[in-house]
Amino acid sequence: MKYTCYIVSSLLLATTYFKATAQTDKAGQAQSVKLVPSEKDKRVDVFIGGKPFTSYIYPDVLKKPVLYPVRSSTGTIITRGWPMDPRPVERIDHPHHVGIWFNYGDVNGYDFWNNSNDVRGHAGPFGTIRHQKVNKIVNGKEKGELYITADWLTDKNNALLKENTRFVFSGNNTTRVIGRITTLTALKESVLFKDNKEGLLAIRIARELEHPSDKPEKFTDAQGNVTDVPVLNNEGVTGHYLSSEGKEGDSVWGTRAGWVVLSGRIKEELISVMIIDHQKNPGFPSYWHARGYGLFAINSLGQNAMSNGKDSLNMRLAPGQSVTFRYRIIIKSGGHLSKSQATEESKAFSNK
Question: What is the pLDDT of residues 253-264, one digit of tens each?
């Protein structure tokens, strides 16, 4: 499997951004946000306070657009590098887990979740999310916005869904925030999101932030295909999950919650990564697909597998009908988010 490296060094990105220098704002004071598009390179680079934060990329090598890599306010990369930019001691399972992404495992029978250049035995048929255009970019002193359109395509390149997404980026000298508001509209035919555990908004985190695991695992997808995840040396692996319902560690998986925080440490830097559900989302509060091997995902549509058959959600859109999903991701550096802080962040998002 050959991947083109799309990560760009912080030095190069900072030079690209008109040689901007990082701001020295006090804690809590919003920093300016600048988005720099490159249609030729199929990316939009995001800078906060003059420093690289993330990039919206849509290279042909991927089967969906993603945010990659993602950095803390200090510049530490909090997403896994493999398969785009492999780093030592990383896991090399699930090649479709890249950065931060949004897709689903069963849309009219098409698997958008497991598609990659190496499907590793997954049966398909596979769907592809293809970026169509950048509609608008807004730069600002307190936030930046990116508006994009993408098509959800079958293996015959027939469009099932039109996606319109608005990203909102902001931050200060300790925190980075990503808002994602995605509207999916059914096109010529009715579209069924069949209840499936593979979805919906996900992050594949850096090895250091994984929840430690001391035994090999076998993970089975919705079609019965098995991925072996071997035991690795847990030295420096520090992640710990906490949900709004008080669940911790591995017990977060398959439970409902309004938010989940993953806290850990990369070298000496304390980092928390928080995903917040929104009360207007289908299936709220969502089930969580938080795995020890590094997958951190919220699934607003998959309920059956998570609840052992107690719940079910099969969402259908008629032609022309739309559904909107709203999420917020917070990356805090220099300290961990407490339950009370996370609760306040969730309340603030719910009021949006």
Answer: 999 999 999 999
